[in-house]
Amino acid sequence: MRIRWPRRVFAQVLLVQVVLTTGVITLATGLFLAPLSSQLDQQAMRQALSIAQTTAATPGLAHDLVSTRPSVTGPVQEEAERIRRATGALYIVVMDTRGVRWSHTDVTQIGRHVSTDPSVALSGREIMQIDRGTLGRSARAKVPLHGAGGRIVGAVSVGIAYDSVRERLLATVPVLLLYAGAALGVGVVAALLVSRRLQRRTHGLAFADISALLDEREAMLHGIREGVVALDAQGRVRLLNDEAQRLLGLGPDASGRPLDEVLPPGRTTDVLAGRVAGTDLLTVSGSRVLVANRMPTGDGGAVATLRDRTELERLGRELDSTHGLLEALRAQDHEHANRLHTLLGLLELGLYDEAVDFVGEVADAQRASAEQVAERVRDPLVSALLVGKSAIAAERGASLSVSTATLLPDRVVDPRDLVTVLGNLIDNALDAARSLVEVELRAEGTTVVLRVSDDGPGVPPEARERIFAEGWTTKRSPAHRGRGLGLALVRRLAERYGGMARVTARAGGGAVFTVVLPEALAGADLVSTAAADAAPSGGAR
């Protein structure tokens, strides 16, 4: 008759646990009983050795051995019997270097030679063995007895009855079998309870159903376009889908490791670890802007979801830039209207020479301002940004000036990164400035150094690090996006280049933001080579 394997998970687990418990207890009992005799023998021999060593170390025993004769009432016999009664040993024999007994449980043996070879102990070595002597089979030990100056004057032999050891071994067998039976019963009950709990947890599903559910979950997690990070109660990464690996810049080896170990310190790590509470929290990972939500689980862990908001944030910043451009155009339109009204008045009054002079002055001023920026900043995108921000600053009643130390060649590797950094710094400076914002751009080899200073209230020393954290801001957020990301992106860009971003105090009041971007400029030799490659080649026809 063929035994059918149960289909339900709990029944399979119960059967396997009962079989395993029975096998383990049987094996453990056998393995315990097999070496028990040897262990008890070793224990008895070590006990005999300890008694022998203690007897040999008794003060005056070696002196009594060499200064008296073997006697039933002698000091050696009395001391040996006192120690034997105190320790429960079978016998304690003290012998001289000839092997003659000076003490023995059977007083008739005193003065006679020992029945076993004492040469090992008399040579200075200790020995343990199971042997048979005049008092029967015993676990015995022999140690040398040292006199004055360390000279061996005899030996001490101690025995413990071996028959009592064997009786102890046999007496333990019923107890062991009782414990084994009790352990088997407890194991069966525990297996039943575990199986019942497993049945409730699995809702009575079969292994095939659980396997199908797991496959579906894996396909869903790795197919959705949201990052999913699952953490256990100890803060270790339990699950990481493909999108989360892409957004956080992690590999599959991050699973099983603590979150603080796989991610650098910062807001992203704090949000995922639950040290920052809230919903739809904005954070920056690398150059990506993420929206994070965290939900605790019943086992003390948590599941966090991440959405990529980089494109939306970029669109928001472009909307800000467009809004700023509209403000600049409106300001210029207002200014041009005032100038046209002035020009019209001069023409109506017949002051034609004055009108010509007025038009020339306005045109020269505009041209001089733009030419000054273009002369010092050779990259067209960066210079255009500075000209546009100058108009916005003028509309706000502030002055945006370019430092005389500014000199940026047309060798910028990625002008968009430079525009992002400079635009964020100027926007923050214009928000804080009273009347003055100054920009300095310098090239040091292939490194770009940016400094944007303002005459605003400045940044307190205790906030100079927090100001670069994601979400930290003192301004009211606009409707279309959150604030507190501009300076965080500036620092992340600087760190991506291997540089740094910091804020210090400005002499006379205000703040100075300094950003260093190594390798932001192409080398002069690379630029020359690229220009030569791009030039049309000439030749004779």
TrEMBL record:
<keyword id="KW-1133">Transmembrane helix</keyword>
<dbReference type="Pfam" id="PF14689">
    <property type="entry name" value="SPOB_a"/>
</dbReference>
<dbReference type="InterPro" id="IPR016120">
    <property type="entry name" value="Sig_transdc_His_kin_SpoOB"/>
</dbReference>
<feature type="domain" description="Histidine kinase">
    <location>
        <begin position="414"/>
        <end position="521"/>
    </location>
</feature>
<keyword id="KW-0902">Two-component regulatory system</keyword>
<dbReference type="Pfam" id="PF02518">
    <property type="entry name" value="HATPase_c"/>
</dbReference>
<keyword id="KW-0547">Nucleotide-binding</keyword>
<dbReference type="InterPro" id="IPR033463">
    <property type="entry name" value="sCache_3"/>
</dbReference>
<dbReference type="InterPro" id="IPR035965">
    <property type="entry name" value="PAS-like_dom_sf"/>
</dbReference>
<keyword id="KW-0418">Kinase</keyword>
<dbReference type="InterPro" id="IPR013767">
    <property type="entry name" value="PAS_fold"/>
</dbReference>
<dbReference type="InterPro" id="IPR039506">
    <property type="entry name" value="SPOB_a"/>
</dbReference>
<dbReference type="GO" id="GO:0005524">
    <property type="term" value="F:ATP binding"/>
</dbReference>
<keyword id="KW-0808">Transferase</keyword>
<protein>
    <recommendedName>
        <fullName>histidine kinase</fullName>
        <ecNumber>2.7.13.3</ecNumber>
    </recommendedName>
</protein>
<keyword id="KW-0597">Phosphoprotein</keyword>
<keyword id="KW-0472">Membrane</keyword>
<keyword id="KW-0812">Transmembrane</keyword>
<dbReference type="GO" id="GO:0005886">
    <property type="term" value="C:plasma membrane"/>
</dbReference>
<dbReference type="InterPro" id="IPR000014">
    <property type="entry name" value="PAS"/>
</dbReference>
<dbReference type="InterPro" id="IPR003594">
    <property type="entry name" value="HATPase_dom"/>
</dbReference>
<dbReference type="Pfam" id="PF00989">
    <property type="entry name" value="PAS"/>
</dbReference>
<feature type="domain" description="PAS">
    <location>
        <begin position="220"/>
        <end position="253"/>
    </location>
</feature>
<dbReference type="Pfam" id="PF17203">
    <property type="entry name" value="sCache_3_2"/>
</dbReference>
<dbReference type="GO" id="GO:0000155">
    <property type="term" value="F:phosphorelay sensor kinase activity"/>
</dbReference>
<keyword id="KW-1003">Cell membrane</keyword>
<dbReference type="InterPro" id="IPR036890">
    <property type="entry name" value="HATPase_C_sf"/>
</dbReference>
<dbReference type="InterPro" id="IPR029151">
    <property type="entry name" value="Sensor-like_sf"/>
</dbReference>
<feature type="transmembrane region" description="Helical">
    <location>
        <begin position="176"/>
        <end position="194"/>
    </location>
</feature>
<dbReference type="GO" id="GO:0006355">
    <property type="term" value="P:regulation of DNA-templated transcription"/>
</dbReference>
<dbReference type="InterPro" id="IPR005467">
    <property type="entry name" value="His_kinase_dom"/>
</dbReference>
<keyword id="KW-0067">ATP-binding</keyword>
<dbReference type="InterPro" id="IPR004358">
    <property type="entry name" value="Sig_transdc_His_kin-like_C"/>
</dbReference>
